[in-house]
C-alpha cells in the first residue's frame, strides 16, 4: 500500500520519467504486475499553426511589437497622442497600422495554410479496434494505447508498434519517402508472440503492456519492451526496436492490412518532433540594416537635440521667444522648465521621426517572401528524374546566397550520384570482373563457386529486397545486380528463407536468423544465416577500416592492397567477411543477442575472412563544371566526407576540385603520431604556404583523426601555441580542402571553426543525408541534395542536384543580394531626402516645429508614393542578364563580403540624400525669396513652399530609382510612372475637393495653384535635374573608366 | 515559410514556364554609354542655357522699387511714428521719384522681415469652422468652441468669444497706404485696385461669411480681435462685399508666408506709374521694432515668370554650362581611353 500511495503522489513527475508504459487497448494488466498509473499523453492532433482564431490578434500584435522598429513607431504614436506635437498622430499611426496590417495578413495567410493542412491531417479517417470491432474515427481522436488497423497504401496516423500483419510471417513493407526521402520499401516485423493474430477479436484479446523510451526526434532509434500477459503465466518480455516501430507519415505497401498499437501521438510523434527544430539564422544584410538603423536613430536624436538647444539659444531674447503677435497661453507659461524641455525635445523627435523608414521592414519581408518564389518557380532547377524543383524553407536568407565564401559539401550522394554499379570483386586476392567472369568462372574451382555463392547469399541477405531490387542502400542494389550478372539471381524472401536461383537454375534456400543493422558507429552490418545444409554462417559487410581489424585469417594483405588501389581510382569499396559458426557458437551468440537486445545495448562480433567488393560511384552530371564555377566565383570549396582518403581524393580530382597543378598537403593518420609531430608538420605547411602564397595553389587533405587532434585543446603544448589558429591559417591559404573520414559531428565542428574565424565568412553547407544535418544547421545557409528528406527539412534551401548550386548561388543569390542591398540603401536615402528639408526648415521658422509638409504627404510618402517602385525593383531587377552571370562566375566576387552594404557605400547614399535635400530646400528657398511666382502678382504661402519641395522630392527619389533600374520590364514602367501619376492625381484630388470642413482646407487648391505658375514648373525641372546630376555623372564616369561588365557593380561600391 | 506540411501535400508539379516566373520578361536595358550620354548632356545643357537666358533677360527687364519705412534711423520720415508711445494713428509720408515709366500693371506689396508667420503655434491658431461662416462657432459653448488652438485669443475677459479668433487673425497687418503723384505741386491720388489680390479660391470657396443680412448681426455677442481697431464686418467701409472673412487684405494675411522675410500683395496699379515724383502716405500702426523687424513697401511689375527673381535664370545658366562642361570632360575621357593602348 505504501508503494502504491507513493506512486500516486509521484504521478506528477511521471512525464519526466525517461520511459513510458503503454497499456495496449487501455486494458489494465493483471493484478500484481504493477500499479496502473494512467499517464497523460497528448491526443493525436498535429498543430503546426502558431495562432488560433481567438488569440491571433493579441498574439500577433505582441510578436510584431517585439520588433524594435515597430515598437519605436508605437512609442512615437503614443507620444503624439499624449502631448501636443507638431504632426497629427495619424501621420505615424496610419503607416504603422498599414505595416502591422500587411505583416499580420501575411502571417495570418501563412498560418491559415498551416491550419488547413493540419485540419486535413487531423480529420482523416482511422480504423480503431474497440471491443473486438473495427470502429472508424478521426485521426485526432486517437489516443496512446489504441489498437489501429491500417490498410494497404494508407499512411500511419501516429507512431505505432506493429502487432500483426496480414502476411503470415508477421512482416509488412513500408515506404518512408515522406520522412527521409528513401523510396525503397523497408520491412518491419511484428512481435513474434502477437503476429499470429489475424482478426479484430484476437487482437482485442491481447493483454500486454509496452515499455518504451519517451519520444525523441531520431527517426532511426527506438528501444522498448513488450510484456505479454497470458493467463496465470509469467509475463513474456520481448525486445522492441526500430524494426517494430511504424512511423507516422510512412505508408504501408504490399501488405493488405496490419494491426498496430499507438505509442506516440500528436506532437510527440517522431515526425512532429523533427518539424519543430527550426533554425533561426539572421543574414548579414539584416545585421547591416540594423546597424544603419542605429546610425539613423543617432542622427535623429542628434537632430532633435541640436534643434532643441538652438531653440533655446534663439529664444534667448524675449522678443523672439514671445513676440507680441504670438503670445503663449497661461498654461504654457506656467509649465515647469524641465517638463518644457522634454516636451520640446519630444516634439522635435516626432517631427523628424520619419527619417526611420517605417515601411522598410515590411518591404524587406515582402521582398523576401515573394522573391523566394522565383527559386521555387525556376525551371532550370527542376529535375526531370525526381520530378522535383528547388524548395525554399526559409526566405530570410535569400541574399545570403550571394555572399557565400565557403562551400562545404558532402561527397557521397551530393557530389556523386550515389547510384552504384558493380565493377569487380576480389576474393582472397583474386580479381573478378562481371562481364568476363561468367566465362572464366566455369573453369574455376568449386571453392570459388562457393565463395561466389557466399557473396551472393550475403548480398541477398543484406539487401533484403522486397520484390525486384529495391533496397535502402544503393550499394546493396549494386551488389544484387552485380551478382545477377554472375548468374546468381535473388528470388524472394519467404518465411524467413531467402531463395536464390544459382546459375544451374537450382534454387538454394538460406534461413535468415538474425540481422544486425548498419549504424554509423560500428560502420558495418551483419547477418547470420543457415544454409540448406544446416551450416550457420555469419556475414559482415562494411567499410574496410571496420572490417580488416576483425579479420583473423585469409589473404588480408592482398585484399587490402587491392582495396587501396581501387580507392585511388575513385572507386568505392566495400568489404565483406564471413565466419562459419558451429551450432554451439550460434546458440551462444543467439543468447547474447537476445540478451543484448533486451538490455537495449549494442554487441560485439568477431569475424573470419575478407572479401572486397568494388563499385564505382559516378560523379553527378556537371558537378565538375559547378565546382569550377564556384572556384571562379571566389568561393572555397571543402569536401567533407566519411569516405577514405584515396576514394575521396579521386573524386576531388574528377570533379576538378583538385587540379593537376595543385600542390597537395596531406595530414593523415594522426593517431600514430605524437602531438608535437603534428605541430611541426602544421608549422612547416604554414611556412611553405606563406612563402609561396601567390605562385602555387595549395590543397589540403586531412582526416578525421588528425582533425580531432588538431582541434583538441592540448594542455601539454601550451607553449607551442594553438593548433587551431595554425590550422585555420593554413586552411585560409588553401584553395581546396578535403576532409575525409569525418564523423557527422566533426563536419559541423569544421563549419563552426570557419564561421568563428576572424573574417566571419559566410558558409554554405550542402549535403543529402542524415549525417549532414548537423553541418547544414550549423552553416549560414544549408542546402540539401536529393537523397534524404531528413536533410531537406533541416535545410534552408533544397535543390535536386549539385549542379543547381551554380544557378542558386551565382544567379539567384547574386540577384537577391543586389536587390536587397539597393532596397536597404534606397530606403535610407529616400527618408533622408524626405526629412532633411524639414530639419532645415526649422532654422527658418524659429525652431517652432512647424512641419514643412502636409499631414497627408507625411503619412503617405512612405506607404504609397514611394513604396511600390522599390518593392517591384527589388523583385525584378537584373543588373546583368542571367546568361552573363552564369558565364562569368567571377562577377560573384564583386558582391563578396557584403560589399554593397559597407559603410562607404552607406555614407555615399546618405550624403547623396543630404545633398538632394539641401538642393530641394534651398532651391525652393531662393525661389520664394521675396518674390511672386505668378503672373497675377499673388503670393504663395508656406504650404505651397512645402508642396513644391515635396513634389521635387517625390519625383527625384522615384527618378533616382529609375536611373538605377537596369532592367525595364513593363512592371517597372507601370509602377514607376504609375506612382508618379498617382502622386499627381492624389494631390489634385486632395487639394481640389472640399470634404466637409476637414482640416485639408490648409491644402486646398495649393497644388493646382502651384502648377498654374510657370516658374514652379521650371524650378521643379531644374531642381530634379540638379539633384540627379551628381549620380548620373558618377555613373557615366564609372562606365567611362572601366567599361567592363562589372562596371555597374564596381561603381556601386564607389 | 515554415510550411513543410503544405509543401508535402502539394503535388510537386513542374513549375510554370512563363516569362514572369522564369524572370525572363522582355525588358529594355538602357546603358549609359558615351554615344547617348554626351549628346544628351549637350542637348540638356543647350536647352538649359536657352531657358536661362530667357529667364534672365525677362527678369532684368522687370523693375522693383523697394523702400523701408520702419523708421529706425532718425533721418527716416517715419521715425516719429516708430516710437511705440505715440503710435496711435500716426501718419508719415515717403517720397520717391521715378525717372521713367513704371509699366503696368504694377503690384504694390508691403513687406515684413524677421516676422515669423510660419511659427507653428501661430499658424494653427485659428478656427476653420468659424472662418467658413459656421455660426455655431461664434458663440461660447462649454469651452469647446471656438477651437482651443485659438488660445490665448479665444475669449475676452468677459468670456465672450473673439471672432475671428486666434493669433493669426489678431495680428493682421493694419498699416494703410495712399499713393499720390506730385503733379506740379499738386497731389493727385493714384487709384489702387484692391480686388483679386487674394487667391480666387480663398475668396470664393475657402472663407465664407455667415449668411446673415446685414452681416453685423452675425457678430452679435462676439468681440473683435484684441488688436483690431474695427470689427471684421467693418473692415472696408467702401465695399460691403469686401467685409468679414472675405476681406481681401484679411485673406492675404491669413495665407501664411513660408519664410520670415516676406512680402504680401497690397494693391494693384493697373495703369502703371508714369515718371515723376510720388508721395506715399502711410498710416503707421503696426509695431515691428520690438522684434527687430522691418517694414517695407515694394512696387514691382510682373512677367509671365512672376516677379523679379534672377536666381532661377542664373541657376539655369549655371546648370546648363555645367552640363556642357561635363560633356566636354566626358568626351576627353572617352577619347583618352580609346586612344590609350591599355584600354580594357
UniProtKB/TrEMBL annotation, chain A:
Residues 125-204 form the P-type ATPase A domain. Belongs to the cation transport ATPase (P-type) (TC 3.A.3) family. Type IV subfamily. Its cofactor is Mg(2+). This is Phospholipid-transporting ATPase. ATP binds at residues 410-412, 476, 518, 541, 572, 641-643, 741, 747, 771-772. The chain crosses the membrane at residues 65-83, 291-314, 334-356, 906-928, 940-962, 974-998, 1004-1029. It comes from Neogobius melanostomus. Its main location: membrane. Residues 792-1043 form the P-type ATPase C-terminal domain. GO terms for molecular function: ATP binding; ATP hydrolysis activity; ATPase-coupled intramembrane lipid transporter activity; magnesium ion binding. GO terms for biological process: phospholipid translocation; positive regulation of myotube differentiation. The active site is at 410 (4-aspartylphosphate intermediate).
From TrEMBL, chain B:
Pfam families: CDC50. Keywords: Membrane, Transmembrane, Transmembrane helix. InterPro entries: CDC50/LEM3_fam. It comes from the Eukaryota. GO terms for cellular component: endoplasmic reticulum; Golgi apparatus; plasma membrane. The chain crosses the membrane at residues 31-57, 314-336. One of its GO terms (biological process) is phospholipid translocation. Its main location: membrane. It is found in: Membrane. Belongs to the CDC50/LEM3 family. This is Cell cycle control protein.
